[in-house]
Amino acid sequence: MSLLFFWLFLAFMILGLPIVFALILAPGISLMVEGRDIFLTLLVQRLYNGIDSFPLMAVPFFILAGEIMNAGKITQNLVNFSKALIGHVRGGLAQVNILSSILFAGLSGSAVADTSALGSMLIPAMEKNGYSRKFSAAITAASSVIGPIIPPSGLMILYAFVMNVSVGGLFAAGMVPGLLVGVGLMSVTWYISKRRGYPVANRRATFKERAVATKEAFWPLLTPVILIGGILTGVFTPTEAAAVAAGYALIISLFVTRSLKFKDLPAVLRESAISSGVILFLVGAAVSFSSIVSLSGTPAYITNAVISVSDNPMILLFLINILLFIVGMFLDAGPAILILGPILGPVVTSMGVDPLHFAVVMCVNVTVGLATPPMGLVLFVAASLSKESIERITVEILPFLAVEVAVIFLITFFPQLTLFIPHLLGFST
Fold it and tell me: What is the C-alpha to C-alpha distance for residues 50 and 291, in angstroms, rounded to an integer?
């Protein structure tokens, strides 16, 4: 089978066709041109089977949980809690932005949700507090990529589904990289804030004020503890955990904080259904596309090509990181995982790289791509919220991207950073 489907896919992408249709049409047209109509049935079957999966039900439930948290204004409690902890340090509101992203990651696992929820609140507040608008947007976009790295993560669920990797193990492996990104961003923010004279957000909070902020944020902060604890101890599966997250978010928002009204639920459910439908359709199309990739023998071809360059796993991972970083500039994280995971995963694991290690490296890399120009999705969201141009935000975000790229190479060349916790918890490969 020729690579006509691949060239058609690239042509459709260049022409601006939505990726989900490019994933379906490219192999379909290729099969018809080559007279392999018999495989068209396989294409349709794989499209359906790619969606008809119990583990994949976690995605719409996590999306629903995030929508409920956003509509219920849970983020305000997280921001207040962050202010009470670190609002008194240099560049306080910028530091609050990063810490809030770390905390919000345990609720939604979505970079776009993080940017939308925190950006709409913190970008105007930072500007009033003396920060430039472009810096405020840049730090919001840069810190939002922590969302899909720290568990629970919808992106990691997609990878685990496609590559048959343990979701619990992948969640455990994402903890250290996510915290490394957060600490790195905080360090750069402190340095920039000191040089530019950015102010503190507020005076040092008293013990009583911190206690009040902790009390208000207690129930939202308990979310990741329940989810991750339940998954790692085997109380429920990741799919069941997603349902628990949605139910827990609903109870907290309706009856504890009372920040969500019953009349708001139809809009929340509608937005969740639309987002879930788009993602699941994309997953089905990607699984269908992957079946044609396998039939064409592309993975074997790429494996031989890569091995001919070097049989050193570390050099291989270095080259793959460069490839993924470039891909991330133009392709969203989900499609990048679904398209490239089945191609690159077998190559690196055949050379002795731990599947969990590569999974985290790939997930972190394509997630950082969400904040890289020219097509970084969270850049567009931050630009829309701040009314600032992409170009000006890009200049400001470069130091933060440098930190995130450094973390990618750090976890690449020191696998123990990602594998220590999974192995400690009994996840072996």
Answer: 10
